[in-house]
Amino acid sequence: MLSVNTNTGAMIALQYLNQTQADLARTQSAVDTGLKVSSAKDDGAIYAIAQNMRGDVAGYGAVTDSIDRGMSAIDVAMSAGQSISDLLIEMKTKALAASDTSIDSASREALNQDFVALRDQISTIVKNAVFNNYNLVDGSTTQITALASADGSRRITAGAQNMNLSGSIVTLSTAATISTQTMASTMVAAIQTSLTNVNAALAKLSAGSKKFSVQLSFAQKLSDTLTTGIGNLVDADMAKESALLQSLQVKQQLGVQALSIANQSPQYLLSLFKG
User: Fold this and answer.
1) How do the domains of the chain map onto residue ranges?
2) How many CA atoms lie within 13 A of 249 on its CB side?
3) Using alpha carbons only, how large is the chain's radius of gyration in Å?
4) pTM greater than the 0.90 cutoff
5) Which residues pair with 145 in a beta bridge?
6) CA dist list (Å): 66 to 48, 55, 79, 151, 235
7) Considering the chain, what percentage of its residues have pLDDT values greater than 70?
8) Spatial CB neighbours of 8, under 8 Å, sequence gap ≥ 6
9) Average pLDDT for residues 261-273, to the nearest whole number?
């Protein structure tokens, strides 16, 4: 039926053209953003899943930062412990030299002055071994804790090691000297005990650092895996989208042409009324 009131062909052509326009807009958005799902409007379910996973990735970013800070604090403590171990070796050498009965009192006093300077240096190192307000060698804390999961429900810890003078690790007193041959002889064994304790404490700090390092590596790998999963869900296949874009552009041109032809059909009715 030919009618001037209802142009069915034009309506159908317009419907297809509108659909093509919508498809073209989605494809253009995918090309522009690189995402096939860039908002909830594109695919609500996929967008929600991706957002939850993005939240986990952000959480693991915080976990990584927390573990990095913990590892840095442990590294500072280990550096302090290594320095203390080196100082104890030097102190042992001074004490051993001062225990020699063949040296005179002036030489022994010179050795004692060096010994006292090295002893006091241990306290200085302990006080300065601070990172992010954490000191793992001065007895101010028993452990350091870092995040281990994106939801904060799990944590990882490493023990501190008190290396103050007159402690359970460095057993030398704050007033230790080698001013006499007898004191020097006794000090050699005492220093060796402290040296053994410090080296054992360093091994414990190293184990804690390793624990943090393993957890850091896991958190980074898990974050990378989640990021890849998000990409699989929302990233656009650019080769496919590029081909589709060209196809839709051609389809759009044909749709416009079809609509133009359909709009001209009522004009054919005029020929029926010509004499």
Assistant:
1) 8-34+237-273, 64-233
2) 8
3) 39
4) no
5) 157
6) 27, 17, 20, 13, 30
7) 94
8) none
9) 71
H or E element, residue 2: none
Report the distance separating Cα 160 and Cα 163, nearest Å. Answer: 9
Let me know: does 111 contact 97? Beta carbons within 8 Å: yes
The count of C-alpha atoms lying within 13 angstroms of the C-alpha of 247, restricted to the half-sphere facing its C-beta, is: 8
Phi/psi region, residue 135 (left: phi>0; alpha: psi -120 to 50; beta: rest), is beta
List all residues 6 or more positions away from 242 whose beta carbon is below 8 Å from its beta carbon: 31
Contact 97, 104 (CB under 8 A): no
Contact 230, 53 (CB under 8 A): yes
Max intra-chain CA distance, the chain? 145
The topology (CATH level 3) of 64-233 is f41 fragment of flagellin, N-terminal domain (1.20.1330)
> How many Å apart are CA 71 and CA 27, to the nearest integer?
47
Integer Cα distance of 158 and 215 in angstroms? 12
* Residue in this structure with the two tokens 């590294």, named with its chain if needed: 75
Section 161-190 average pLDDT: 95
Q: Rounded to an integer, what distance in angstroms lies between the CA atom of residue 7 and that of residue 14? A: 11
The structure tokens listed for 59 are 């959480």
Phi, psi of 143 (to 5 degrees): -165, 165
Output the pLDDT for position 242. 76
